[in-house]
Design goal:
Shape of chain A: globular
Strand content of chain A: 5-15%
Distance between the termini of chain A: 46 Å
Radius of gyration of chain A: 24 Å
Strand order of the largest sheet of chain B: 2-1-5-3-4
Largest sheet of chain A: 5 strands, parallel
Largest interface: A-B, 80 and 78 residues
Structural class of chain A: alpha+beta
Number of helices of chain A: 18
Oligomer: heterodimer
Shape of chain B: elongated
Largest sheet of chain B: 5 strands, mixed
Helix content of chain A: 25-40%
Number of strands of chain A: 19
Strand order of the largest sheet of chain A: 5-2-1-9-17
Structural class of chain B: alpha+beta
Helix content of chain B: 25-40%
Chain lengths: 648, 247
Amino acid sequence: MIKLDSKIPAGPIEGKWTKHKGDIKVVSPANKRKLDVIVIGTGLGGGAAAASLGELGYNVKVFCISDSPRRAHSIAAQGGINAAKNYQNDNDSVYRLFYDTIKGGDYRAREANVYRLAEVSNLIIDQCVAQGVPFAREYGGLLANRSFGGAQVSRTFYARGQTGQQLLLGAYAALNRQIAAGTVKSFPRHEILDIVLIDGKARGVIARNLVTGELERHGAHAVVMATGGYGNVFFLSTNAMNSNGSVAWQAYKKGAAFANPCFTQIHPTCIPVHGTQQSKLTLMSESLRNDGRIWVPKNLSDVKALRAGVKQPSDIAEEDRDYYLERRYPAFGNLVPRDVASRAAKERCDAGFGVNETGLAVYLDFKTAIARLGIDKIRERYGNLFQMYEKITAVNPYEQPMQIYPAVHYTMGGTWVDYNLMTTIPGLYSIGEANFSDHGANRLGASALMQGLADGYFVLPYTIGDYLSHEIQSPKVDTNDPAFEEAEQAIRAKIEKLYAIKGTQTPDELHKKLGCGIMWEKVGMARTKESLEQAIAEIQALRKEFWSDLKLTGKPDEFNQELEKALRLADFLELGELMARDALNRNESCGGHFREEFQTPEGEALRDDENYAYVAVWEYQGDDKEPILYKEPLTFETIHLQQRNYKD
Amino acid sequence: MNLTLEIWRQPNAKAEGKFETYVVKDVSTESSFLEMLDILNNQLIHEGKEPVAFDHDCREGICGACSLRINGHAHGPESEVTTCQLHMRNFKDGDKIVIEPWRSRAFPVIKDLVVDRTAYETILQAGGFVSVNTGGVPDANAIPIAKDDAEESMDAAACIGCGACAATCKNGSAMLFVAARVSSLAKLPQGQVEGARRAKAMVAKMDELGFGNCTNTGACQAECPKGITINHIARLNREYLKAKFRS
């Protein structure tokens, strides 16, 4: 039985964070030296948190599965990072960024968390510039901005199409400085397989050294999960190959409640699937929608000619093109939020207007922008993205439009946290994409980087102090405690069980069945009661198949990528079911969660605020038992709930 | 298409390695090079053999995890792409492809095609940062930076730390990697404050870790998947000389 207390401070929204910071406790420098913190993951959240905690004087251990912290998947974020600087004098403000984020999330995020995010956004830009992040600049030497979906102002800071890379290199440099100073100890090529609890508090982890296969015990006074999202449950997604949901899932099984698992973001502009040998999908940055126009032909005869290769897209006359986003959403046009753009693409393709052989592609066209701005300007803005597109598809996007289609990109759902970013397990924190708190049912573009760095640099380092101030008398955690022994033995038993199966299907083959066969088809861009009920039954059956027919090579005590895959897949096979269950419970459409039964006559998501204005929080009950659903009501004190409107 | 692969197999760091030959069939020209290796691995597992270990993650050319020396070239025959962005349409049916790990003294093999690039981390820890703590920094627009300087800084900052430069260099030098970091920060006022200390510390660490000297052959630049040029090495040399001169 969990008790949900979001710990949102009372008072007017603009004063909550300031008041809270004044109310929470701090730890003296002398005591910080005695306290150990474990950070799992080194993306923007984890990298920033580990560096900042090290600077404050805590003893930090930071773990990542890659061979270097710099390779965490934040590195792949392309377009930019939002902040309410109002450098463009376009009437932006903290309130407007807050409002856009709540609205973009379709009114399913917590007001207080989102306001704080908008409030600290400006500090992030200052911090990154001080670290030497080479953001794009104007000729006068000041910072440049561009626009992203769901906003009518220009508030996105960027470094070409490599913003995530540059921000991560900034955080990684700060981390390196602390590693050199000895406050942070880095453990690359280590995967955390379990969280260890002593007396109900998070007290450490069991890690697998991915080079030797050895299991290691690490104790700490607090543990921070910065492990990203679980989009790879779909097999094909824009996530990196090794991104996974296993730490969050093990934490769930140890008592950390999981919130809104069904809220998945399908990104509208990805390179379409090429065939069955595909291993992952590539995103084309949302920033392209600043200048690119999305269209399909108006006439099915043109579609036929394009698919047959008789016509090229440039042969289709202007009046025969359907710029469907501009047609349906005049106020926002091509810059509607991601969920809206994705569904509109699906709608056109379902109606038979898809432009490639599979029928699952639309055009993203730069013809108008090149005519208006010249090819050099377009090259300066998007050169690396155009090059990437050409390398992958062998089509030159300066001459012919890009083909794009929606793909799984981000998970808004995640571990439930309170205002301090603490999970329902005392001493266990979750930050960045790994938690659920800031993006509601749909995340706006350029806001993931913002949240990761906000949590890592400016929120967690304050809030964790409040918890640790009560731990100054606690001695170093003894990793000989029976709780560590038990956790380690359970992992050994699980690995032995995997090896004992000796079946016929590889982890990849089973993962494809889960992701492409069940999740994408039945828990994907459009869901129905029937599809979700089928998905639950099919996942349960596939789980049995996994545990009776897995073929696993190698040995546990060596570098073994197949074992890594199998362990992660075992968790995805459980997490996928919870996603379907959550989607089935939510009898409404909101943001990225689209239930076909609940839509307006125009095909827009139809929310049910009376019955579903809550965070769905799930508590684990046991392997074959149904989880319990708790509801955290969402109260809107500042923003008036209304139907999202991007038309006028 | 069908291909013959000659792949370096080495069970662990201590064992001796050798080339093994494999045939992989029905590879789509649309597939990436790493997808082709996925197909091979799936085939090997079904034949009861050990799959080939290789590093990879983002598969979109930015994380720097993938490596591989393909037919003698770092990241394969195409210029300015990583192995994960190399597509099979660059090969022909019936081709023989030789696949090796990075060959560099400073990057020992962990298993098969996976190498240990910790040495790069250690160099960055010696000084590849601006010494500012979180918080207490000036407004982002307080320091104007010329657009061209920011662009040049970004050119260098595009380095993904994959190791191709050192693995390609006949001397096993990490100069292009070190230069990318030093040059990126040297072009910005924030980085200039500690410029001298940084250049000296990073070069000293590079030497200490067993990387070779730079003899300006330009091989690193030719193989860099991110198109980082040896102009940055020239800037590193200037920074280094300036630092030495001042001390």
